Amino acid sequence: MGNLGGLAGLFAGDKQADRIVPPTGFTARLTGFTAAAMAFLTVFALALSLATGRLADRWSAELAKTSTVRISAPDAQLVAQSNAVMKILETTPGIASARLMTEAEQRALLEPWFGSDLPLENLPIPSLIEVVEQEVGPDMDGLRLRLTAEAPGAVLDDHTRWRRPLAAAAARLRLLGLFSMVLILGATAAMITLAAQAALAANRQVIHVLRLIGARDSYIAKAFVRRFTVRATLGACVGMLIGMVGIFALPAAAEEGAFLTGLGFRGWHWLIPLVIPPIAAFVAFWSTRFAATRSLERMT
Amino acid sequence: MHALIELKKAGFSYGGGDIFRDVDLHLTKGSFHFLTGPSGSGKTTLMKMCYQALMPTTGTIKVFGKDVRAMDRDDVAIVRRRIGVVHQDCQFLDHLSVAENILLPSQVSGGDVNQDLGNLNQLLKWVSLTDHMNALPPQLSGGERQRAALARAVILSPEVIIADEPTGNLDWEMAQRLLNLLIELNKMGKTVLMATHDMNLIRASRQLVSARVLRIQGKQVHLAGADL
After folding, report:
1. Comparing C-alpha atoms, which of B22, B8, B17 is closest to residue B221?
2. Residues B155, B129: contact at Cβ < 8 Å?
3. B79-100: pLDDT as tens digits
4. Rounded mean pLDDT of A211-234?
5. CA nearest B95 in A: which residue?
6. Would you call A215 and B108 a contact, using CB atoms and an 8 Å cutoff?
7. B134 within 8 A of B95, measured Cβ to Cβ
8. φ and ψ of B23, to 5 deg
9. Exposed, middle or buried by CB within 10 Å (0-12, 13-18, 19+), for B67?
10. Coil, strand or helix: which one is A167?
């Protein structure tokens, strides 16, 4: 609480103390620009992270509710086995509906790979049954055993082998987004520390005079910490706003759900970037305090 | 009498050579000391040791009864508020006005703003700088800068005033004027230590103040006699 109080106290302001440190245009611009750039990048990393999270959820949800039964059998047995499978599916708890795909639907599925002239009737194409599950799905292991017994050519595919790598990839992307944000914070802290050290070195004479007239090091450090924290916070506000405008200006998510058009914030997620300036202020506060304390210790 | 600043066998070496050694000095309350000696004799070094800008390499220094080696940085800051220092080069913050510079010690020590402003007006009148209060230090003449530095040194009403060659760059009239201000402070009970190599100034002060004259010679501090 003490530190948060100190942070809040910095923004309360002390006009006289502010004037003690002479204005230095270069480090001021550098700190503001760094904070703005980092806040801008954080908004995009945040949007990426949230978008991949949504994507992972959607892929998992869509694929989790459906499964497919593929029946590969000689022509003479294909219809009988398909009917047997349909019967089993209709009586299995947890299945909302099951539908044998028509020849036209199968042709449509294969068309992107083999073209429209595919002589489907001459090929040994398996029958496909699309299964839609209820909220609580069926016992997949039990269903597989029944299908094997009644229709030896039937294979149940609950999409697990598709779902897992997709969900893993999306989770990995989300992790990368979060890691990027941590890196951005670290880089911000490093840049502000360097800028603060440069400012302290440039104001060595001011510090010397302040010490001669009885200023404590904590007073001197506070003057620098306040200046850099305020600059970084203002820079972060500007960067955050530009980033949010940039995200807002992206094309809206298409119905097809293309990934890039889904990059953005939805609903209350628009409020999340608002935490960036306070975090930037916190990082700037500690970075400058660290730099000031170390520099003042070294100055004799 | 109890010494406000006390040096016992104090010495200072730099780069392998002694600047001075075995210095004994007692600055008691209300005393006035001149410190004289040729340029480079160590007057500034000795004064810096009195306000802890330098630590002695040998011997001990006690300021307000406390050994300087036992002080941490906060202690030093507190002690410096009780010692007003006037430097030859004034040591102003050039981006602040004269008034702001004079108020700085009060500001950094968290003083009462209203009381400080009252003191500031009195001080500006005392050093005849009321008309220059909003000027920047580089806009002042040498004498005005020294008077402003003196005002800054006394705004916290310190017990000790250390003036390092404050008249070094001033003409005779201005030097006397500044000396008179220091004598006024001494008559108010302040302890004054003033470095100068201007013997005429010291002689001129004899009718105005009972001062001891210390001379740095042969790396040691001696009490000067009637040979002045």
Report:
1. B22
2. no
3. 999 999 998 888 999 999 999 9
4. 91
5. A22
6. yes
7. no
8. -90, 125
9. exposed
10. helix
Instruction: Note whether A22 contacts B78, CB cutoff 8 Å.
Output: no
* C-alpha to C-alpha distances, A297 to A200, B64, B79, nearest whole angstrom: 12, 25, 19
- Give the start-to-end residue ranges of the domains of chain B: 30-53+78-223
Interchain contact B78–A (C-beta under 8 A) = yes
What does the pLDDT look like over A89-125, one tens digit per residue? Answer: 999 998 888 999 888 888 788 777 777 776 767 777 8
Contact B93 A20 (CB under 8 A): yes
Whether B73 and chain A come into contact, CB under 8 Å, resolves to yes
Find tokens 């005002």 and name the residue: B151
How many angstroms away from the CA of B109 is the closest CA of chain A?
7
Residues of A with CB under 8 A from a CB of B: 16-17, 19-20, 22-23, 206, 208-217, 219
Order of strands across the sheet with B17-28?
Answer: B17-28, B3-14, B58-63, B66-67
pTM of the model: 0.73
What tokens were used for A132?
A: 């839609």
Rounded to two decimals, the ipTM of the complex is: 0.88
Neighboring chain B residues of A215 at a CB cutoff of 8 Å: 77, 108-109
Q: Do B91 and A209 touch (CB under 8 A)?
A: yes
Tokens of A293: 């304390």
* Contact (CB<8Å) B100/A19: yes
The encoded tokens of residue A118 equal 């595919």
CATH of B30-53+78-223, one of 3.40.640.10, 3.40.50.300, 3.40.50.620, 3.10.50.40: 3.40.50.300
Specify the pLDDT at position A1.
44
For residue A190, what is the enclosing H or E element? helix A160-202
Give me the torsion for CA of B181, B186, B190, B195, rounded to 10°. Answer: 70
pLDDT band per the 50, 70, 90 thresholds, residue A186: very high
